[in-house]
Design brief:
The complex is a heterotrimer.
Chain A lengths: L4 E3 L4 H10 L3 E4 L5 H7 L6 E4 L8 E3 L5 E4 L4 H6 L1 H6 L1 H8 L4 H6 L2 H5 L6 H4 L41 H7 L3 E6 L2 E6 L22 E7 L8 E6 L10 E10 L2 E10 L6 E2 L1 H7 L6 H12 L11 H16 L7
Parallel strand pairs in A: 1-3, 2-3
Antiparallel strand pairs in A: 4-5, 5-8, 6-7, 6-8, 9-10, 10-11, 11-12
Helix pairs in contact in A: 5-9, 10-11, 11-12
Chain B lengths: L9 E8 L2 E8 L4 H8 L18 E4 L2 E4 L12 E3 L13 H9 L8 H16 L21 H7 L10 H12 L1
Helix pairs in contact in B: 2-5
Chain C lengths: L14 H6 L14 E7 L5 E7 L1 H4 L4 E5 L22 E2 L5 E7 L2 H10 L1 E6 L18 E2 L2 E2 L2 E3 L2 H7 L2 E9 L11 E7 L2 E6 L4 H12 L6 E4 L15 H13 L3 E4 L5 H4 L6 E9 L5 E13 L21 E10 L12 H19 L3 H7 L17 H12 L12 E2 L2 E13 L6 E6 L5 E4 L9 H13 L6 E4 L16 H22 L9 E6 L13 E13 L5 E11 L6 H20 L31 E5 L23 H13 L10 H11 L1
Parallel strand pairs in C: 1-14, 12-13, 16-17, 21-22, 25-26
Antiparallel strand pairs in C: 1-5, 2-4, 2-6, 3-5, 7-8, 9-17, 10-15, 11-12, 11-14, 15-16, 18-19, 19-24, 20-21, 20-23, 24-25
The chains are: A alpha+beta, B alpha+beta, C alpha+beta.
InterPro entries (chain A): CO_DH_flav_C (IPR005107), CO_DH_flav_C_dom_sf (IPR036683), Diverse_Substr_Oxidored (IPR051312), FAD-bd_PCMH (IPR016166), FAD-bd_PCMH-like_sf (IPR036318), FAD-bd_PCMH_sub1 (IPR016167), FAD-bd_PCMH_sub2 (IPR016169), Mopterin_DH_FAD-bd (IPR002346)
Keywords (chain A): Oxidoreductase
Organism (chain A): Streptomyces pyxinicus
Chain lengths: ~325, ~180, ~700
Amino acid sequence: MNGFAYLRPTGVQEAVDAYAAHPGAAYLAGGTNLVDLMKLGVARPTALIDVGRLPLDTIEERPDGSVRVGATVRNSDLAADPRVRDRWPALSQALLAGASGQLRNAATTGGNLLQRTRCPYFQDLGKPCNKRAPGSGCGAREGVHRDHAVLGHSEQCVATHPSDMAVALAALDAQVELYGPEGARKLPVTDFHRLPGEHPERDTWMRPGELITGVLLPATTAGVPSAYRKARDRASYAFALASVAVVLRVADGVVDQVAVAFGGLAHRPWRARHTELALLGAPAGPAAFEGAVALELAHAEPLRDNAFKVPLARNLALDVLGRLAPAPAGV
Amino acid sequence: MTSAHQPGHHSEVHLRVNGKPVTLDVDHRRVLLDLLREDLDLTGSKKGCDHGQCGACTVLVDGRRLNSCLLLAVTLDGSEVTTVEGLGGDGEEPHPLQRAFLDRDAFQCGYCTPGQLCSAVGMLAEAAAGHPSHVTDPAAPSGSPVALDRAEIRERLSGNLCRCGAYPRIVEAVEDVIE
Amino acid sequence: MTATALGAPAERREGRQKVSGGARYAAEYTLPGRAHAWPVPATVAHGRVTGVDTAAALALPGVLAVLTPGDAPRLATPEDATLAVLQSPDVPHRGWPVALAVAETPEAARAAARAVRVDYAGAPHDVTLTEGHPDAYAPEEVSSGAAHVEHGDPEAAFAAAEVRVDAVYRVPPLHNHPMEPHASTAHWDGDRLTVYTSSQGGTTVRSVLAQLFELDEDRITVEAEHVGGGFGSKGTPRPDVVLAALAARHTGRPVTLAYPRRDLPAVVGHRAPTVQRLRLGADRDGRLTAVLHEVTTHTSHVKEFVEQAAVVSRVMYATPALRSAHHVVPLDVPSPSWMRAPGEAPGMYALESAVDELAHALGTDPVDLRVRNEPGSEPGTGRPFSSRHLVECLREGARRFGWAGRDPRPRSRREGPLLIGTGVAAATYPVQVAPSTATAQALPDGTFTIRLNAADIGTGARTVLAQVAADALGVPLDRVRTEVGRSELPPAPLAGGSSGTASWGWAVHEACAELAARLAAHTGPPPAEGVEVRADTTGKADAESPYARHAFGAHFAETAVDTVTGEVRVRRLLGIFAAGRILNARTGRSQFTGGMTMGLGMALTEHSSLDPAFGDFTESDLAAYHVPAHADVPDIEADWIEEDDPHLNPMGSKGIGEIGIVGTAAAIGNAVHHATGVRFRELPLTPDRILPALSAEE
C-alpha cells in the first residue's frame, strides 16, 4: 500500500465533491474489506474519503411502514434492531451468519453491499484475474474453484459475491439509496450487483462517484415470515458455500407471497424468479416447493468441482420453505 | 534517516489509550494495531493475520470490540481505546476475566489470549445490551439481554481463533465471570 | 506438600504476563533504530530469477534496502537447504523468497516489497501427487528408522485371509498455522549477533546461525522467551531468522521480520499429503492375519521429507504378516516438514479407519476387535513394550462414553434432519527423549534456580520443570525458579516430538538430585554465590532401550451429520490416554485437549489445495484455511489412566504434546460412517463430499 490522502467530509454532498476532486479516490466506511484489499495491493486508492462518520447511522421508520437504514449503520446494530428482528427476520439472521462479532461491529450497511469477492485468484496479485486485472484471464475457471459460482458466471469470471446480508436484502425487495454527481436515485438490491459477463471488473451498477446513503426495507415485506440459512465449512466465521433467504406468506394453504434468493452461487445474490413464479398461487407444500426450486436450479452450470452446490442450494431452499410454511391443517 | 512519511500522507491523531491521552502524527497507512505496537510499545495486542481473520488484535474502541488490524488509525481521531494492558484499569489486580483465564488454564501459547479477553469483554456487553447471535432463538424477545449458554459463548467468540485448542477452557472462564 | 509437586495442577508461571499483555514475542522487541523487513515471494513454481528491479522500491519513502539473490550477504551452505535464502537465483517452488525489502516501518516495507519487479525464466512444474506417479521412489529412511518394514508373507497372507479390507485413504496438505506467525528480530553489534525468534528450539537456532554466518556460537545470542505456538513448524530454524539476520547485517540496523500470514504456507513446512492403501486380512474371529500399510506422499526438490504415516502399523496390532512401506514423490512444491505427530496423525487416520471397516465387515464391536488384536510385543521389532495400556484406555473410554448401549447398525439414530453416530479409534505416539544439560543452583535464601535453554511454546515447560525440580529437591514448588528460552543458558534440545519435558526434566532431575545430595552433605546455608550443579544426560537419555516405548490412548466421538447441508459437527469428544506419569494435571489436560481440537480440524475443516496451474497452496490465509473456531469445538474431555513405567526417565513420563491429535480424525470419521452408513476415505469431511454421498444413499 502506497501513501494516500485522507479526507473526512461532514456531509454527503461534501463527500461526493471530494471524490470528484480526487481522481483515484475511494470511499472508506468500516474498512473491513477495503483495508484488507489495500494491504494486499488489490485496492490502491490515492485518497480515502472517510464516510464512516457521516450522519447516516440511524434506522428510521417511515409512515408507510418501510424502514430506512442509514449506510453507516453497523452490521451488528442493524442485526440487533428490534424492528428489523421482528419484521424482517431474514435480514437479522443473515447478518448474524456472517463474519465475526468484531467485524460486524465495524462493517457498515453500505460497505457490506460493496464487499468484493473472496476468490483467491482475485486476492493474489501474482495470478491472473479478469476482475482485478481485466484481460489477464481467470485462474479459477480451471483452477481451485470449489467455492465458486454455479449460476450466471461467464467465461471471464466465476467469482461469487460474499455477502450474507445482500442475499436477505434481495429477497426482501430492499432498495439501495444512492447519491452521486448526478443526484439521488434508488436501485432495487436485485438490480444493484451485476453478473460478470464481459466486465467482471464491475461488481455493481453504481456510477462513478456515487455513494450509498441508505437501504430501504419496504413495507411490502414487513412482517411477512422470512428466514435465512447458510451452509459453511466450519460452524462459524466462514463464508457461505451456499445460502438462502426466503420470504413466504401462505393464505388458506396457497402461496400468497414468496421470494427466494440464493447466496454463494453467483456473482450477485440470486433471486430465484422461476421458483417464485411457479409457487405464487400454488398450494404450499413439499411437492410444489420441490418442483419450483428444481426449475431454478435447472439453470445451474456447475464447474468441474462445485456441482455439490446445486443439491446444497436445493436442500437449503426446501428446508427454509418448509419451515416457513404453516403446517397443513389437521396435522 | 529517510522519513517514511510523504507530505499529505500523514495526519495528527488524538486518542485516549487505556485512559491516557495520546497525540501522534500518523502515516495514513498505519492501522491501530501497528500504532499500539510500534508507536506506543503496547505489544499486548497481537498480529496473527493482519487481515481480520483471527481476532488476536481485538481491542475495545469506545467500548466496542473491533479488529485493530483493519482500523486505520487516522479514522479514529477522538476515540477511546482499551487494550489488554488496560483491561484491569489502574489497579494491580487483574480484570476478573483475566483471573478466570488463569484459574481455568484458558490459554497455552498465549498469543490469542489478549484478543480473546478483549473480545469476551466486548461480547458480554453486547449480550447484556440485547444483541442476538446466530444461535439465539429467533423467537426470543427483541431488545432483552441474552442469556449466555455455552453455544452462545462459542458462537460469539468465534471471531477469535486459538490454535492451541484452549476453547473449552476459555468458555469455562467466561462462564465464571457471568456467574 | 513436597511429595505432590509432580502431577499437581500448578498454574502456569508466565500466566500473569500472558493475560496482561506483558509477555513479549519475537517481533515485539522494539530495539532503538529497529527497521522492518518484508519478503517478496516467487510467483513461479519452478525456474530462475533473471532480474530484480529494485529502483521503484528504493525510491519509496522510508525504504532502506532491498536484498536480492544477487547482492544479499553470502552464507555458508546450510545443511537444511530451505535456509539457503537469497543465495541463488534458482526458484524451487512458488513462494520461495526472491527478495527482501527493509524499511523504517512495516507499512513502508510492505509497499517496497510490492514495488520490487522480479523477472523469471520459468520452467515446467508439477505439484500434483498421484499414487502411481512415475517419479515415486522408496526412500531409504524415515525419521524414526527404516522406511520399509516387512515380515511374513503379507501378500499371500492377505490373499488367503477369510475377511479382507482393501481401501485407500487420502489426507490433504495441512498447515500448522500457529497463532504467532514466524518472526525474528535480529541485531548485530560488530560480529556479535542477537536474535529474538519464535522457535521451538533456540539451541539449534544458534548452531545453525553459527554455521551459516561462520561465527563461533559464543558470538550469538538467541532468545525465545515466549513462543506463540509452533506445532512442529518452529522446530527448526526457518527462513525468517536467516532473512532477519541478513537484513540486519546488510543495513546495520536491528531488523524485525514478521512473516506475513499468507506467505507462511510456502516457507515454514506443511503436513505433506498422503495417499494410504490399507489392506487388512483377518480370520472370522477377527484375528489379523495380514496388515499392509503402503503410503505415498510428496516432498520438495529442496530436500527430502517423508511423512512417515505407515510407522503406526509397526506398533499397533499383532499380525503374522506385516508390510509398512513408504514411497515419496519429489514435486515442485514447498518443503513439507513436521506438523503435530508427523506420520502418526495421518497414519492412524488410515489404519484406525480400516480397523473400523474390518469390524463392520466382521460384525464385531470395534473396541472388542482392537482388544482381540492386542500384541504381546511390538509387531515391527518384537521388542517388549515398556508399558502398554491401550486396552485399559479403550475400556475406560467406553465406560465413560456410554459405549455399551450403542446400536452398531449404521444410520440407526436420527434426530429430525440429523444423523447421529459414534465412533472409536486408538491413539499412539512414541516415547522420544534426547540428551540435555541443566543447572540447579541453591541460594542462601533457601530458594533454587533451574536453568536450561528449554522452550515454552505453550506447553507449560517453565512450570513443569519447576515441579520436577521441587520434587527432586524435596522443597515446596514456590521455592524454585526456572529460567528458560535463552541461549546463554545450558544447552537443551527442542520442544518437539513430544520429547521436551522428558529430555529437559531428566537433566533437571539429575542436577537437582545431585544438588540435594551435596546440600545434605553440607552444613549451614549455601555460600553467598550459591551452590550450583550441572547435569548432562548424554549417554543416558540417548541410550538404546531394550523396550518398545510408546504412549497409547483411545478416542470416542459423537457426530451429527445434517442431511440438509452435509455439514458435520462433533457433539462430544472423549480421549483417555496412558502416557506414563502426567507431571502437571492442568497443563497436561490442556495439551491433550489441544491436540484433540487440532484432530477435529483435520477431520472436519482443515484442507489445503495445491493449485496445479500455479503451484501454490490456494488456502493460504486464515479465512480460507479453516482452523476450528470456538463454535466447532464442543466440550472436549481428556483424561488419563495412571501408568507406572520404570523404563522411561526419572519422572516416569511419556510425551503428551502430540498423541491428542493421533486417531481423533479416525474416531470422528468412524462416527460419521456410523451416522450415515457411508464410508468416507478422504479428509476433511466437508459438505462438498458429504452431501453428494448422502443424496446417493437416499
